[in-house]
Amino acid sequence: MRDATFFTRPASDWQRRYEALRASFVERLPDQLVAERFGYSPGYVSLLRHQFRHGKIDIAEPAGEGKAARWKISAEVRQKIIEWRQQQLSAGEIAELLEQEGVEVSVRTVERVLAEEGFPKLPRRTQLKIGRTIKGAEVPERAKSISLAHFEGKRMESDGAGVFLFAPFLAQIGFDEVLKKAGLPENKYISAQSYFLSFLALKLLGTERFNHVSDEHTFDFGLGLFAGLNVLPKCTALSTYSYSLDQAHITRLQEAFVNCASRLGIYNGSIINLDFHTVPHFGDESVLEEHWAGARGKRMKGALTLFAQDAESKLILYTAADIQRQESDAQVLEFLPFWQRVCKGVSSTFIFDSKFTTYPNLAELNLQGVKFITLRRRGQKLLTDAAKLEPWKRIKIPHDKRKYPNPMVHESRVELRGYEGEMRQIILRGNGREKPTFLITNDFDAPAELLVGNYARRWRVENGISEAVKFFHLNALSSPILIKVHFDLVMTMIADTLYWRLAQNLRGYESCDAPKIFRSFVRGRGIVDVRNGQLTVTYPKRAHNPILRAVPWEHLPQSLPWLGSAELNLQFK
Q1: Helix axis angle, 107-116 to 75-86, nearest 10°
Q2: DSSP three-state, residue 219
Q3: Which residues have a Cβ under 8 Å from the Cβ of 249 and sit 6 or more positions away?
Q4: In total, how many domains does the chain have?
Q5: In-domain check, residue 501
């Protein structure tokens, strides 16, 4: 026998929502009380009110069981439904196939038949998992190395066609020789060069994270062709491959690339700027230490990395990663043998800040015949003594656009604890700093103007790191780290060098950075056409196409070694 509990404690969900809304709107009870009475949370009561006001909820009593008329399904149609479900087709796809055969059946009817036959519902699938894009293009189940003949006669629209602008410079540097010396691993589906080019393509396009490859580039067959694949590998394959590389692989890759690039004369090598950078990490990884992150102005957990930059070209030519705190002081001595192997006979000056290394390590550099310029750590006594020094002379720093081109300097020779012998000390005033700056060096011959100017341009390495963070998304590895940090550093170095090589051939854009080159020349769609073993990439009309047409492409390599020496033809409308 029904009583008041039918309304105060409703059994069905539709009536419970109805009574909750009635208590809220008519009885004007607070959300907390309504939630306690009907077993909801206060937030859900608020959501019910919102849905009711906007007509997004139906609180009508549903039709009773057996009242709705059911569509009668013949045995033949039922058998077809069963066979198609065994092929992993969804209810919607089965309904479409039946409609093509002249059988009008709703999706709900197909679902009912499948339930009666004991088939569970298919899990929710993306278009990628189904095996096609929204436009109906077929997507291969896995990436694999292919020859150019695989795409023979095909004409593809590619959002990443700009990567082919770098192909001639990659061939000019000697990409095949670099990979041969690096000895990178491969598997039976994807070659080492295809893995390398997949990572490089994502870097050249400024892809923020490697796990975005599935969102942005999975269906771009032009990018797959650039890497010698049918499609780019998935995120898991890229991440797994990066962690399969040990330190020996990455070191060989870095040294082989710098050696090949050095033969083209792109490094001056007379001045090397060195600096540390912390790649932040926000996870719970206990093996990572806390390091100073200058961009954030605090110490934080992350991977400490090292950058060495050629000051003249502003190109990164050496990287190191996963540096422990106790190892950081010796990194300049770790870099020295690498540089001596790469640039034999070049007399270089290393420039770094005061906390980069120790005085005993400076003494070791001096014994190795390496010049250095750094800062002396200044205490209050040093500042007090500097105020009494005489005489001071004014110099002119030979760099344009300096805000303070004529500082005052005082020169002397000093001995410091831990350093054997004397060092040259140059104290600067009037350079825009509140306190004097103390430069120390083992170069006793160069003019003070040159030494001060060379150190002043140490900001170039900081700008290089900033560009690596903003455009090449160096810090995007932070959480979670999906790719080995040092491998990502080396790929960033290679991509930055290729951008520099392209910029040197663009009239009026020789000094532009990678983001500017990307926006003006690389970003945008293109048509990739494969005919008779020739690869033609056509770029649509753009304001900067005349500059690209003026590039002497005929003097650059025309064949791509990783695609069976196929001839590349770049066309600009």
Answers
A1: 80
A2: coil
A3: 182, 183, 184, 185
A4: 3
A5: no
For the record, the structure tokens of 509 come out as 């854009």
- Length of the chain, please? 573
- Residue 530, strand partner residues: 535
Residues 120 and 14 in one domain: no
Is residue 515 in a domain? no
For the chain (573 residues), the mean pLDDT of every run of 10, in chain order, is: 72 83 88 87 88 77 52 82 87 86 85 86 65 56 82 88 94 91 90 92 81 66 89 84 90 94 90 90 66 72 89 92 89 92 83 92 92 90 86 84 84 91 91 88 92 88 86 67 81 94 94 92 92 91 92 92 90 92
Q: Cα angle vertex 326, ends 323, 329, to 5°?
A: 80
Q: Are residues 11 and 109 in the same domain?
A: no
> Is 558 a domain residue?
no
Cα 419 versus chain centre, distance: 41
The answer to whether residues 42 and 84 belong to one domain is no
d(CA 388, CA 379): 15
Place of tokens 């230490």: 289
Rounded CA separation 306/303 (Å): 10
Handedness of CA 479, 483, 487, 488 (dihedral sign): negative
Which of 419, 441, 463 marks a domain boundary?
Answer: 463
Please write down the HEC assignment for all residues of 25-69: HCCCCCHHHHHHHHCCCHHHHHHHHHHHHCCCCCCCCCCCCCCCC
Dihedral of CA atoms 489, 492, 497, 501 in degrees, nearest 10, equals 170
Tell me, yes or no, whether 45 and 82 share the same domain.
Answer: no
- Domain termination residue (choose one: 416, 447, 463): 463
| 443 touches 373 (CB < 8 A) | yes
Q: Kindly list the distances between the CA atom of residue 469 and the CA atoms of 50, 163, 207, in Å, as whole numbers in the listed order.
A: 43, 20, 12
Q: How far apart are CA 457 and CA 268, in angstroms?
A: 15
List the domain range (segments joined by +) for residue 34.
5-53
Q: Do 18 and 119 belong together in one domain? A: no
Quick check: is 400 in a domain? yes
Amino acid sitting at position 239: S
**SS3 state of residue 227:** coil
